[in-house]
Design a protein that fits this description.
CATH superfamily of the largest domain: PhyR, sigma-like (SL) domain
CATH topology of the largest domain: Butyryl-CoA Dehydrogenase, subunit A, domain 3
Strand order of the largest sheet: 2-1-6-5-4-3
Structural class: alpha+beta
Shape: globular
CATH class of the largest domain: Mainly Alpha
Number of helices: 12
Radius of gyration: 20 Å
Length: about 290
C-alpha cells in the first residue's frame, strides 16, 4: 500500500476525531490536511501503527487549536454552537444510533464543557474504542491518568444529560409537525410539540440577528419562533434534513440557506432547539446541498 493509500484509508477516521474535537467542519478539514502534510514527511517503514501515528498527529493538532481558540470562544457574541454537518441515513440501525449519539448537537455542546484533554481522551476511548495504552500513546500521557480522565468526563456528562430515547421515526414526525406548526402560525400546536422545560439556543456570531441568551420554556420558545416566522418573506421555506445524524431543518429565504435547526428529543417531545445562523458556519453545509435546494 502506498503512502497516500495508507493515509486515505484513515482519512474518514481522522476527520471524525477532529470534527468531534473542534465542532467545526472547516477547522477539522484543516487538521486533517496538516496531518497529511506531516505524514508525507514520515518514513512509513519507521511507523509501527499508521492508525495510532496519524491519530496522534490529528489529536495533538486539535488540542493545540482548542487551547489557542479558548480566548476567541470566550469573546464570541452570544451562544457558541457547533457547525452543522449534513449527514446521510445508513441501512444499519445500530450504526445510525451510534452516529446520532456521537454527532448530535447536544453531544457536541456537552463536549464543550470538558477540558481539551478530557475531550480528547473521552472521545478516543468511548467513541473510537482505542484501548487505554493506545490513548496514552496518542496524547502522550500515562494510561492510568487517561483512565481517570475518562471516568471524570463520563461522570460529568452523565450528570448533565438525562437519556430518554425517542425512536428515530418519531423524531422525524416531530420535526415535520414542528415545520407545519411554524408554517401555519399554530401557537398551541407548537407548544404541544415542545417539552415544558425546553431550551432554545441561537448562534448568530454577531453577524445575523439571534438571541444572545438561551430561551427557556415552551410558551416563550413557541412565541419567539412564531414572531420570527411572521417577519419572514413569502419566499421562506423550511425543509427537513438529516443534520449531525438526527432529523433537523434547513431554513431558506430566496433559495439561500439562512439557518439550520437541530433538535434534542426527550419524553416524546422536542427538548432542545439549536439554531445556527452564523453564515461562516453554514458555508460547508451549503456546498454539500443538492443544486435543486
Amino acid at each position: 500500500m502506498s503512502h497516500l493509500e495508507t493515509f486515505n484509508q484513515y482519512r474518514p477516521l481522522l476527520f471524525s476525531i477532529a470534527y468531534r474535537m473542534l465542532g467545526t467542519v472547516t477547522d477539522a478539514e484543516d487538521m486533517v490536511q496538516e496531518t497529511f502534510l506531516r505524514w508525507q514527511k514520515t518514513t512509513e517503514a519507521t511507523v509501527k501503527s499508521a492508525k495510532i501515528y496519524l491519530s496522534s498527529i490529528t489529536t495533538r493538532l486539535c488540542l493545540d487549536h482548542l487551547r489557542s481558540a479558548r480566548v476567541q470562544r470566550e469573546q464570541y457574541v452570544g451562544p457558541w454552537l457547533p457547525e452543522p454537518l449534513l449527514t446521510q441515513k445508513t441501512p444499519d440501525p445500530a450504526h445510525t444510533v451510534e452516529l446520532a449519539d456521537t454527532l448530535s448537537t447536544a453531544f457536541l455542546v456537552l463536549m464543550e464543557r470538558l477540558s481539551p484533554l478530557e475531550r480528547a481522551v473521552f472521545l478516543l476511548r468511548e467513541v473510537f474504542d482505542y484501548d487505554y495504552n493506545e490513548v496514552g500513546r496518542i496524547v502522550n500521557k500515562n494510561p492510568t491518568y487517561c483512565r481517570q480522565l475518562v471516568r471524570r468526563a463520563r461522570q460529568h456528562l452523565t450528570s448533565q444529560r438525562s437519556r430518554f430515547e425517542v425512536p428515530s421515526q418519531r423524531q422525524e414526525q416531530l420535526v415535520q409537525q414542528f415545520i407545519q406548526a411554524c408554517r401555519q402560525g399554530d401557537l398551541q400546536g407548537l407548544i404541544g410539540l415542545l417539552g415544558e422545560d425546553i431550551t432554545l439556543w441561537s448562534d448568530g456570531g454577531g453577524k445575523v440577528p439571534a438571541a444572545l441568551k438561551p430561551v427557556h420554556g415552551a410558551v416563550k420558545v413557541a412565541r419567539l419562533l412564531l414572531n420570527i416566522r411572521r417577519r419572514k418573506p413569502p419566499s421562506t421555506r423550511d425543509l427537513p434534513a438529516e443534520i449531525n445524524g438526527q432529523p433537523g431543518m434547513l431554513h431558506f429565504v430566496d433559495r439561500q440557506l439562512c439557518r439550520v435547526y437541530t433538535f434534542d428529543f426527550a419524553n416524546d417531545r422536542i427538548q432542545s432547539i439549536y439554531i445556527v445562523g452564523n453564515p461562516d458556519k453554514l458555508k460547508s453545509l451549503t456546498q454539500d446541498l443538492p443544486d435543486n435546494q
